[in-house]
């Protein structure tokens, strides 16, 4: 067996555009797991709405969540590692989003908070339901009892482009990245999928060349370039394909199944 650790992005990669996991892809992942390879979901989602996919497939191990900001044990729900943000530095961003009337959520490893759950617009509520996660009402920052690991802004792409351009000049800097067409994430400067995958590989005694990663968006680039073999989905932006070693079929055409069949089961 060449690849001992296989990292799979979730949305746009593992799941099709209807947020569904196909039977064929699930069976192929199970077959690869039976060869002894360790499967880890590496996603912008939190543990609460990514661990259920591991359980659906019948896998144990880990999820790398919040784009690398928190790694969690699937069975025990233990936080193996997290990158905590500077709470004091968060406030100006929250004020800015409110001033711009841009919806945002604040995430600890296991919980998500917004300003007013009841007052959310229908399209925003629908977005959370699609991702199997409904937020809680946000307490004052000083009352958070757990580290904050990610802030996500949700808006149209051109609005996020402007926000990214403006806030990227601020100090202290966070890791600011696009995790989807309508999402902009802020995290600890060291938090990334690639960094978290590197730490997990070292923890498991797995060499870099024994790691395979599959993803489809800009937040996946660090793990695609870290892995011994990085595979981009056909539905990826061109910059993501350029960062990968190979390109597989799209998420609607079982690209994960195709890649695992070719590189892990042939």
Automatic annotation (TrEMBL):
Tell me the protein's name.
Answer: Cof-type HAD-IIB family hydrolase
CC terms in the record's Gene Ontology section: cytosol
Organism per entry:
Paenibacillus mangrovi
A Pfam family: Hydrolase_3
Matching CDD domains: HAD_Pase (cd07516)
**GO molecular function annotations of the record:** magnesium ion binding; phosphatase activity
Entry keyword set: Hydrolase
């Amino acid at each position: 067996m060449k690849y001992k650790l296989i990292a799979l992005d979730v949305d746009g990669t593992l799941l099709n555009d209807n947020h569904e996991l196909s039977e064929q892809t699930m069976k192929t992942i199970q077959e690869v797991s039976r060869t002894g390879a360790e499967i880890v979901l590496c996603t912008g989602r939190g543990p609460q709405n990514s661990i259920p996919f591991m359980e659906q497939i019948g896998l144990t191990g880990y999820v790398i969540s919040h784009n690398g900001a928190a790694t969690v044990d699937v069975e025990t729900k233990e936080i193996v590692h997290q990158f905590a943000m500077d709470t004091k530095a968060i406030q100006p961003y929250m004020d800015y989003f409110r001033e711009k009337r841009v919806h945002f959520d604040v995430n600890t490893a296991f919980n998500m908070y917004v300003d007013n759950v009841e007052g959310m617009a229908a399209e925003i509520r629908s977005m959370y339901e699609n991702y199997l996660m409904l937020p809680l009402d946000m307490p004052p920052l000083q009352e958070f009892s757990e580290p904050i690991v990610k802030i996500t802004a949700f808006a149209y792409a051109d609005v996020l482009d402007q926000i990214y351009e403006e806030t990227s000049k601020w100090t202290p800097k966070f890791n600011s990245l696009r995790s989807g067409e309508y999402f902009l994430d802020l995290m600890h400067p060291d938090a990334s999928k690639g960094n978290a995958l590197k730490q997990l590989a070292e923890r498991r005694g797995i060499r870099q060349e024994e790691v395979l990663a599959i993803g489809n968006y800009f937040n996946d680039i660090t793990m695609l370039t870290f892995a011994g073999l990085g595979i981009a989905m056909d539905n990826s932006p061109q910059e993501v394909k350029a960062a990968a070693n190979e390109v597989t079929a799209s998420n609607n055409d079982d690209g994960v199944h195709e890649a695992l069949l070719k590189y892990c089961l042939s």
